[in-house]
Amino acid sequence: ASTPERGLTADMVVNHPSHLAARSTTLNDIWPALELGVKELFENQEEGFSKKTFMVLYTNVYNYCTSGKPHLPIGNIKGRPGGSGGVLSSLGGTGGTRGKEGATFVGAEMYANVTGLLEKHLEGNVKKGIEGKSDETLLAIFNREWKRYTMSSKTLDRMFEYLNRHWVKREVEEGRLNVYKVKTLALIEWRKHMFKDCHERVTQAILRLIERERNGDLIDKALIADAVDCYVALSLKAAKEPTTVPEDPIATYAKYFEREFIKETRKYYTAERENFFAAPGAQVTEYMKKVERRLVEEDKRVQDYLHSRTRDGLVQVCVEVLIKCVVDLLHNEFKVLLSQDKNEDLKRMYGLLERVPDGHAPLRNLLEVHIVEQGNAAIGTVAQTAVSDAAQYVVVLLDTHRKYATLAADAFSGDTHFVASLDKACRAFCNDNAVTKLAKSTTKSPELLAKYVDSLLKKGSKMVEENETEETLGKVMTVFRYIEDRDVFQKFYARHLSRRLVMGTSASDDAEELMISKLKGACGYEYVSKLQRMFQDVRLSADLNTNFQDHLKSGGHGALGLDFSMQVLSAGSWPIEQRKGSFVVPGALEKAVQRFELFYNNKHQGRKLTWLWNLSKGELKTNYLKSSYVVQASTHQMAVLLHFNSTLSSSTEELRAATGIEPETLRGVLGILVKAKFFVPAGGGGSSGGGANGEPAADAFGDKASFALNTGYKGKRLKVNINVPIKAEQKVEAEETHKTVEADRSMQIQASIVRIMKMRKVLSHTALIQEVVQQLSSRFKPNIPNIKKSIDMLIEKEYLERKEGERGMYSYVA
Amino acid sequence: MQSVVNAALEGEGEIKYVKLCSSDGHEFIVTRKAAMVSGTIKDMLSGPGTFSESHSNMINFREIQSHILEKVVKYFYYKVQYANSTTEIPGFPIEPENSLQLLMTSDFLDC
User: Fold this and answer.
1) Which of B94, B108, B110 sits opposite A20 (nearest CB)?
2) DSSP state of A620
3) A469, A711 contact by CB (below 8 A)
């Protein structure tokens, strides 16, 4: 309203007879017209309501309200026993706030009348329409009446806007209960007279319709939607009642409909479930499909015609009845499905159990167990051959892993928990399976894996030709990640790598680099530092060679008479032990060796060179045979052969003296030479017949045995390679590697303990062990007794000491 | 002129203008938006309009005199112009002799 310029207050206005309120309007004056108007509003909606009439009625209300004189004696108010209090209090109560005149806001009577009108209308016309109807007709009529009623009450509200604005507001401010704005009043009246009586029937009608729909019938969803709207609308308005619980904004809906609905749903689905399982031959897979369908259906139902707030309760009930109650059944079925590889059903089960809290945990366990079983079974079938066949072993592991990785990604949507179970299971069967049991060593797995990689990276491997390097190495890394004893792998790998580098049998440098970078990614720099230094050495050696050749050419010392190249390896990085040998360098090589030593010592002062004759090799040409053969032989073999340049036959003893080779090695060398038919045992020592496979009997290499060159040698090929690694040597090597691993490990444990104690100063026994295990977990799984041993050793060495007075505590000794 | 006015009132599509009639026959044609400033008029325009097809868009105020109604209409436009305005809003002049009736009318019209 516009601001008055002089201090006029509303009281003065109201009590002042003015142009607008020309006469003191009594209720009786205007009520008949009002009553008629309202009746028409409610009953004859189709005909429309003209503005003029509205205007008139509004004005009437206004006039009455502004007339300022309460006309009926107090206590004689129709229909609203509480209403009289309003007039009374406004008489008295205003005194405090408004000044002494006690201006009254009249309206109680009118309010009461309006209430009465609504009541009459509802009881009379509307209710009659509902009598005796049921189900769809009931709903239809109910909805129609509701729509009409709401529309009319809107207009009614506007008509009595003046009353709302002043009298009602006052009453509410004064805390008067049961006085509301007219539109709220309308709703409350509806609730009181219509809803209370027929809500049961209406709810029942709705529920019956829903049941029919669940059974497959088509129903008119609009009926339900409208009725639900009515319930919700009633709740919203009724919330203004101080008596209702304020927290639930749609209390009416919740109480009268939702509750019944949920109950009904529960009954319905329990029955359905029981029927399903009572029938013979009930398949759990079929059940799951059904449940899935039902859940989708119910969701749609909520969307279509129920209030969204019902969704949670509904889903909960469905899940509870349909899934929770049969959880055990589902778990059992899970096992069966796994073994039958029914991915789709598994996926469905995953989806269903997702809705149940903690429904997945038992599945995960079952899955893990199953995978371990499968993995072990797979390995078990090939265990015998796989012990030695690295490729087969790795392939079988990979197959199992891949199968279940796809399953996890597919059916379980890559759920991280399931993937974790997969990892755990794979770790279990990679490190502890039939093969490792056969080999009686837990470190068989990494050993075989290293062997497999070696075969891939060696010359002649199919991998490089087919350009599958990245993929295959990737697969290898997958298995690698599950290996617990990584340091074993590293040792074996280093050994294989050194052999490849020294022998030059590496298939492709790129492949090697790739592998190293992958290992670095998985284990960190330290792991691969030695390997990388090996590569470096090889590169440096290549440069060194060219330099040496140049030096020879320019040096003018005269040609060497043979092609000579060497590799210089830095002792620390290569897993090769230097054997102190008494090897006598064959004469032909001596010059070259000396010249190189001179050259190198000039280049790098202060470095010691040790020749590794057991790894060196060379080529010889036969001049004594009809066709000249080129023989690739190890240096030891060369020495033996070259000895025969001076004599045609020789005894073992002589050979030993001449070449300085140790007896064991010499035995092996001679064995190969004999097998290759270059040598023939000549006379002397034991039977000339060999062992079962044509291998010479052990004592054929006794000191007195003598050999002669086989002058009748005929080979198929002109190039002969007799430089094959001796099987016995290999086995010994493998064992050696294991031993070094053990030694290294204890070193590592000790180093780790010292590190931890240095940081913590004081630590308890159990905590220390935990920390050690954690630190070393990326390399290998330390053995608890070993850790204990290391602790004791360190105490002896005075790195640690037991704390006095406290049992089980250690402290660091600086 | 009358035909133009009628056309504006019985508009096709959106109704832009309404006619407010005072007690002594004066007709004030105002934009719908301006008229909506009054709560009562707003109710009347949106209320019965829903089920009475006869949109005459005309409201008779048999109790309001024309000079008062005129002032009220001016207020409508004043309100519409300066509502949510950031500029300085000038005052709305009211002659004292009208003030009482204006007050009551504003109470009646809820604006």
Assistant:
1) B108
2) E
3) no
Read off the pLDDT of residues A256-290 as tens digits, 9 standing for 90 and up: 788 888 888 888 888 888 888 887 777 788 888 88
What tokens does A556 get? Answer: 């003018």
Q: What angle do CA A647, A648, A653 make, to 5 degrees?
A: 70
Judge: A6–B99 Cβ closer than 8 Å, yes or no: yes
Short-list A237, A253, A251, A238, CA closest to A305 = A253
Is residue A632 within a helix (H) or strand (E), and if so which, with residue range? Answer: strand A630-634
Interface of A to B at Cβ within 8 Å reads: 1-2, 4-6, 8, 10, 13, 16, 18-22, 45-46, 48-55, 58-59, 62, 66, 151, 154-155, 158, 161-162, 165
By the 8 A CB rule, do B63 and B105 touch?
Answer: no
**Nearest CA to CA, how far is B61 from chain A (Å)?**
8
| Terminal-residue alpha carbon distance, chain B | 31
The residue of chain A nearest to residue B38, with distances taken between CA atoms, is A1
Q: Inspect the interface and report whether the beta carbons of B44 and A20 lie closer than 8 Å.
A: no
Q: Quote the longest CA-to-CA distance of chain A.
A: 156
Q: Nearest by CB to B43, from A6, A19, A161: name it.
A: A161
Q: How far is the alpha carbon of B3 from chain A, nearest alpha carbon, in Å?
A: 22
Split chain A (814 residues) into runs of 10 and give each run's mean pLDDT: 43 40 60 76 66 74 66 34 35 31 58 79 72 74 80 79 77 72 77 75 80 80 80 64 49 76 84 82 79 84 80 81 79 79 80 78 82 81 75 80 82 80 82 74 77 78 64 80 80 82 77 83 78 84 84 69 77 72 75 82 82 78 78 80 79 79 77 78 47 45 72 76 69 74 83 86 85 81 83 84 76 78
Residue A593 vs residues A433, A464, A606, A607, A640: alpha-carbon distances, Å = 50, 36, 18, 16, 18
| Interface with A, mutate which of B20, B40, B60, B71 (most A CBs under 10 A) | B40
Predicted structure pTM score: 0.61
Crossing angle of helices A51-67 and B96-109, in 10° steps, is 120
Reported ipTM: 0.74
Q: Closest-CA residue in chain B for A44? A: B51
> Is B96 in contact with A1 (Cβ distance < 8 A)?
no
| pLDDT tens column, A168-205 | 777 777 776 667 777 777 777 777 777 777 777 778 88
Q: What is the C-alpha to C-alpha distance for residues A496 and A484, in angstroms, rounded to an integer?
A: 20
Q: For B111, which of A1, A154, A155 is closest by C-beta distance? A: A1
The amino acid occupying position A172 is: V
What angle, 0 to 180 degrees and rounded to 10, lies between the N-to-C axes of helices A343-354 and A284-305? Answer: 50
Nearest chain B alpha carbon to A162: B108
